[in-house]
Amino acid sequence: MKALTQRSGSMDVTIYEVAKRAGVSIATVSRALRGTGPVAAKTREKVLKAVEELNFTPSRLGVSLAEGRHAANGVVFPDLAGPYYTEVLLGYEEVASELGRSVVILSTKGRTRVNDLIKDLAGRVDGLLVFGHAAPDPLIAELVRLGVRLVVISRDPLPGADTLRSENTASARALAEHLAGHGYERFAFLGAPLTSGDDVDERWRGVRSVLGGAIEAVATREYTVECGFDAARALLKDRRPEAIVCSDDEVALGALLAAEELGLDVPGDVAVTGWDDIMAARHARPALTTVRQPMRELGARAARALDELITGVRDTPRHLILTTELVVRASCGPHPQEVRT
Amino acid sequence: MKALTQRSGSMDVTIYEVAKRAGVSIATVSRALRGTGPVAAKTREKVLKAVEELNFTPSRLGVSLAEGRHAANGVVFPDLAGPYYTEVLLGYEEVASELGRSVVILSTKGRTRVNDLIKDLAGRVDGLLVFGHAAPDPLIAELVRLGVRLVVISRDPLPGADTLRSENTASARALAEHLAGHGYERFAFLGAPLTSGDDVDERWRGVRSVLGGAIEAVATREYTVECGFDAARALLKDRRPEAIVCSDDEVALGALLAAEELGLDVPGDVAVTGWDDIMAARHARPALTTVRQPMRELGARAARALDELITGVRDTPRHLILTTELVVRASCGPHPQEVRT
DNA sequence: TTGTAGGCGTTATCAA
DNA sequence: TTGATAACGCCTACAA
Fold it and tell me: What global pTM score does this model have?
């Protein structure tokens, strides 16, 4: 039974009314509208006229049910806060829309029954883009088992799904070597990995592989400005490293604030670096040395990969890694031979 | 006909298979699952067991078609870039999810056939949240006429839809008076309104009502860092106002960059203010004086308002205005008697 | 307490 | 070139 208080959007007129008005059958209306079969020119005219007069739009629900597809994708992320997820989502939405798919979003942070939410989402789309942290591994495995088309972003490859990430290890080494070139000898990695196998974990491993025992891991509760601030303040009060390598730009911004509060000069008293190259990184003072990752492209690629999986153009999972770029700015110290952005 | 290459997510098993396995009718399965009618304890057990074994999840499409509702809302924004839309969206999604509604997003910037995209979206949701700039007025009117539940954000009231915005005029006056208190006499408003009746327009009017002829309007192509930078550079080269009031924080960040490039000190040579209080505003140097608007709450309220419209709890449009807060930081000049954030 | 059957709005097959 | 009609997957009034 249809609840009249909850009509589905603008749709009230059905294909039957159009058919009646045009004096044809619903099959003919459907054909005329989709161009999916022969329709006499004259008949088509009548149909289009009726459609126009009644302001008919085929019900998405009806179409989807009949076609067996939603023409929609889902995106699952931990939190939309912060520029990283936004940028990726933006790149994703643009391509998805171009491919004729709507984008349904779901944020999991602070939610109870995350698994149910994600499964529900899976039921209303043709495929899912999941950010590494947003869904627990067992759930991912279950989704794979259920045959959900899946692209997972920012984590190490897993069976049955596409994965997609930016390069981390090599960039982390490059960053570490750059800092070592400044002559620093006592480092801290602020925002120690909270999960193994994710982006931050790779960054940490890369940095450590170069700096070895000279760098210590300092955890933050989350990768946010606030948490970065708290942890950095405690760290700087207790033992001041010469350089703080942060898990990402937001944590680094927190570190800058902490240094300021303690009256420390960056990079004079302590160098700070970030990761991602978000907008605020360029505007911070000192501007943040960071590693730029192609966030929008990450999203765009994810959309295309998911499309391939859904349309069946490809059925073997693929694991892609996009390249990044070291962006040297003021926060890591004077370094005349490098180009500044 | 169902296209097997495009199964809808994880759903393959139907209520019929569950019914057969449990040895009952589909009606009983439905009742047992939704608790919508009497079911013997023993029967329920059998059903739940079958559901478990088959890993059954009711098809969203089937449910929606039968219920006559999508259990989803749409959000239309010009562009997800920049923190403003993100924050609002975040607040919106949280509440929508709490209310059991999915969120389908649509970005219109740079898209052709925007009207078609929006209408299509309207067809797959129970109601729409639209940001002021994202949809042309005639389309809004048409949606209202079609009976689409609508909440429009950041624009002046219009008939047939809820509108929701932050307070602009009074805050703009307060900001203008604050700046006048600094003793400045030659002002520019960077990011002149591109549309009438939107947030920026209100800000401009508010500021001008205090400063009168002392402030000139300077247009930017868009409200972005890049455009703010370009316009500010031209402005500062040509005739240097004592204070630049910007349409929003991003434009203001661009102005800061322009001043830096020209070797001008902010606020020594020129004062700069923004609007919104995005994250980067606090981290910029000098930190931006701005007007904070409750972006997340804006989204949260929009979600509740739309829910009321959809469920029919309320059917007369309502127009809400949320309060804002002047945030004085360093970029407007030394001002000892104010509290800094 | 349970089952039958009609309806939700399309698409597409098949016969005319 | 067109029209009946069977899916698609679920919900629920009504009868049993």
Answer: 0.91
